[in-house]
Amino acid sequence: MDLSDLPNITPDALHPIDFAALKAAGDSGHPPRILLLYGSLRDVSYSRLAAMEAARILRALGCETRMFDPSGLPLPDDDVDESHHKVAELRDLVMWSEGMVWSSPERHGAMTAIMKAQIDWIPLSPIGGIRPTQGKTLALMQLSGGSQSFNTVNQMRILGRWMRMLTIPNQSSVPKGWAEFENGRMKAGPLYNRIVDVMEELVRFTLLTRGRPDLTDRYSERVETVEAVHKRVSSGS
Description:
Elements: H1 19-22, E1 33-38, H2 46-60, E2 64-67, H3 85-96, E3 99-107, E4 110-111, H4 113-120, E5 137-143, H5 151-162, E6 166-167, E7 172-174, E8 181-182, E9 185-186, H6 190-209, H7 219-236
Parallel strand pairs: 1-2, 1-3, 3-5, 5-6, 5-7
Antiparallel strand pairs: 3-4, 8-9
């Protein structure tokens, strides 16, 4: 475990995760693939800095991470479709991922429009027979400029459930985000430790659930598939 880029970690307290003990029988064994989304385009974006800290922790725990830059992403329904290069990039990353981290500021008591636009561009309908988010894990973080709040993580939790994601129980809410970072890095303390907690839990849940399509296999979808086949066969005859 490489902790060289994690000065706030107490080495003896961060334990390696036993991938072999947690993985399902159908797991291919590759590093968990985690996509991180953040909800601010400011030059100094604390939601982006928090996501970067989360990515460092995830990599130390053995994951592969990618982060989507929402700059240039059009608004949904803004006379563009999924062929737009930023939309296509986001969807490709979602299909690649096995888990996600959503990190958004709280603005006017809610997630930002930038965060919501990214989520709205992720389709619910299958792509190539695969639903992009169904059964994937999700961890939530929010950054507030003032006192601690849970409005944004609560909103995102509802969206994660709507998108059929396995949203982990733990979450991070950082109050006074401007006071928790110095020179682009998050300071040591209980708020940083909570992010470590959340990332550890995300990795464990991802290992436990990936390679297990039976966990999210749905009767209603099987019925729909059978009916579609029956209709096609009947029309052909």
